[in-house]
Design a protein that fits this description.
The chain has helices spanning 46-49, 53-58, 61-71, 80-84, 118-121, 130-147, 154-183, and strands at residues 2-6, 15-22, 37-43. The protein has 196 residues and is an alpha+beta fold. The longest helix has 30 residues, at 154-183.
């Protein structure tokens, strides 16, 4: 995996490119595997890309590919083929969202229902914590249910949720630290709430 930073942008907000060759050496033994490719992602603040939030959310693959070419126009000629040879139908513009780390407790329902993963605690992928936290949710929920004789109750769900709020808050903070490194993520207090 390679990481490239373009720190030439205004306001000290870098554009970060992460790329990695994805290879399938078992193609001869396993049917239906795709061709080898290079996975890449460009990360920065929306303002760096010069698009409104509404445009970003509705951006087509074709436009996302054009935007990648525009943003990397002055990059080193050895990196340009990543973007020039992109498969436009596979290119997407995505918003990076995160909730604040203060996860308020919610009242349990009569028929216990709970949340895990991004449904409970969405966070930026820049810290590499989201999937790990979701797996931790699943494991902890299963453990709590087993400890309660397999019974799903408001108490057992509440026990899991109390535990989850604590470690999820730490993961959200860790994710923000990654965001500070990759695209100068602002403090949570300066982030605008969105309706996702």
């Amino acid at each position: 995996m390679m990481l490239v930073e373009d720190k030439s942008r205004a306001e000290g907000v870098p554009v970060t490119c992460l790329y990695e060759p994805i290879r399938f050496p078992q193609r001869a033994e396993v049917e239906g595997l795709p061709e080898d490719y290079v996975y890449w992602v460009l990360v920065s603040r929306r303002s760096t890309f010069g698009v409104a939030d509404e445009e970003l959310v509705e951006m087509t693959s074709e436009r996302a590919g054009e935007l990648a070419l525009e943003v990397t126009e002055k990059w080193h000629p050895q990196l340009r083929p990543l973007f020039e040879l992109q498969e436009r139908s596979q290119t997407a513009a995505l918003r990076v969202l995160s909730m604040r780390p203060e996860l308020a407790a919610w009242a349990p329902l009569e028929e216990p229902v709970t949340l895990i993963g991004d449904a409970a605690h969405v966070m930026s992928p820049s810290g590499g914590m989201g999937a790990v936290t979701a797996f931790r949710d699943a494991a902890n929920l299963a453990r709590v249910l087993v400890e309660n004789g397999g019974r799903v109750s408001a108490e057992s769900v509440g026990q899991y949720e109390e535990m989850m709020r604590e470690y999820a808050a730490e993961a959200i903070q860790g994710s923000r630290r990654g965001g500070v490194r990759f695209f100068n993520h602002p403090p949570f207090e300066e982030c605008k709430p969105v309706n996702a």
